[in-house]
Design a protein that fits this description.
GO molecular function: ATP binding; lipid-A 4'-kinase activity
Shape: globular
CATH topology of the largest domain: Rossmann fold
Strand order of the largest sheet: 3-4-2-5-1-6-7-8-14
Number of domains: 2
Structural class: alpha/beta
Pathway: Glycolipid biosynthesis; lipid IV(A) biosynthesis; lipid IV(A) from (3R)-3-hydroxytetradecanoyl-[acyl-carrier-protein] and UDP-N-acetyl-alpha-D-glucosamine: step 6/6
CATH architecture of the largest domain: 3-Layer(aba) Sandwich
Order of helices and strands: HEHEEHHEHEEEHEEEHEHEHHEEH
Organism: gut metagenome
Helix content: 25-40%
Number of strands: 14
GO biological process, one term: lipid A biosynthetic process
Radius of gyration: 21 Å
Enzyme class: transferase
Strand content: 15-25%
Length: 348
């Protein structure tokens, strides 16, 4: 990787100059008169943005806030602004499509140009709060609350800028965050380990630090979220894990001890299956009792005409996040920000 360091340094310097231009208002940032929460990261992929975004949506909608979510719609076949509702996964991206299924009352939209996307959202309806997915480096929008996610297994302070590492900008970009969240932590992470992390992150005085772990829920049958037959028993089963997400080790570690045997068919993040791969999967599935996939992969599989034999074996593993410490403080920080910055709350 040392041979890539000069390129990484050059790329990092370009991003640093870009950030300087935004910081000194040579490049314009758009402000909007409503609360905007940005969930992002310094690294490419794999920090768990979607379950964290869903946590925020659940928190806010349960408190009665009318939310909208805006994403780039990575991997979609379309361009420009699109509402997710009524679209196929390949038209809007697997993650926004998944969020829309979980939150049918939330207006989920996609647009590469976030400023344009927010304006369209506000023309169509008047949301009380907007969540931006993966827009930490999209600085044309000035979000009021920046949540920076970093993976416990590969925190940004141990990483390097692309192409030598996975960072999109120098580590100093972390100073823009209001809340820093260490994700995918062991559920039993000790206070000492948390303290060590805090020291290495070198947070600024205004920044709050939180730790989350992944929580896997009961399996549900493909296409039957919320109305599924009883989850299968895996301890006597041959199971195939079909997975196209970044860094799936947490899921593997969760499923491995539950299954008699677990075989893994792993693909890159956001992988769209070819006809040849689907034919191979149909044949391979015949050798297993169950095929388990993630919700993100299930969104992509919804585009394909699956055989009854595969559908009968296919189960989906949902995931949420749990805060390991100071959950009430985290929730209140989010709610306080939204309440204090809301100008268009609808009063019944």
């Amino acid at each position: 990787m040392k041979i890539l360091l000069p390129l990484a340094w050059l790329y990092g310097c370009i991003m640093q100059i870009r950030n300087w231009l935004f910081d000194h208002q040579w490049l314009k940032q758009e402000r909007f008169a409503l609360p905007i929460i940005n969930v992002g990261n310094l690294a490419v992929g794999g920090t768990g943005k979607t379950p964290h975004t869903e946590y925020l949506l659940r928190l806010l909608t349960e408190e009665g806030w009318q939310c909208a979510m805006l994403s780039r719609g990575y991997g979609r076949k379309t361009k420009g602004y699109r509402r997710v509702q009524g679209c196929a996964p390949d038209e809007v991206g697997d993650e926004p499509w998944q969020v829309q299924q979980h939150f049918p009352t939330v207006r989920v939209s996609v647009c590469e140009r976030r400023v344009e996307g927010i304006r369209k959202l506000m023309e169509e309806s008047l949301p009380e709060v907007i969540l931006l997915d993966d827009a930490y480096q999209h600085r044309y929008v000035q979000a009021g609350l920046n949540l920076l996610l970093t993976d416990y297994a590969r925190p940004y302070y141990q990483d390097a800028v692309m192409p030598a590492g996975r960072l999109r900008e120098f580590k100093s970009g972390a100073h823009r965050a209001h809340l820093v969240i260490v994700t995918k932590c062991p559920p039993d992470l000790s206070e000492a380990a948390m303290h060590e992390f805090e020291e290495r992150l070198q947070l600024l005085p205004h920044q709050q630090l939180y730790f989350t772990s992944l929580s896997y829920g009961p399996l549900y049958a493909f296409g039957q979220c919320g109305d599924s037959p009883k989850a299968p028993q895996l301890d006597q089963a041959r199971v195939l894990l079909l997975c196209g997400i970044a860094r799936p080790q947490s899921l593997i570690d969760y499923l491995q001890p539950k299954c008699q045997t677990l075989h893994k068919d792993l693909f890159r993040d956001h992988h769209r299956f070819s006809a040849k791969e689907m034919a191979a999967l149909e044949k391979k599935a015949e050798s297993y009792d169950y095929v388990i996939t993630t919700e993100k992969d299930a969104a992509r599989l919804a585009d394909y005409p699956l055989s009854p034999a595969l559908r009968s074996r296919l189960w989906v593993q949902p995931v949420t996040i749990s805060l390991l410490k100071n959950a009430n403080q985290f929730n209140q920080t989010i709610l306080n920000y939204v309440t204090e910055n809301s100008r268009n709350r609808k009063v019944d």
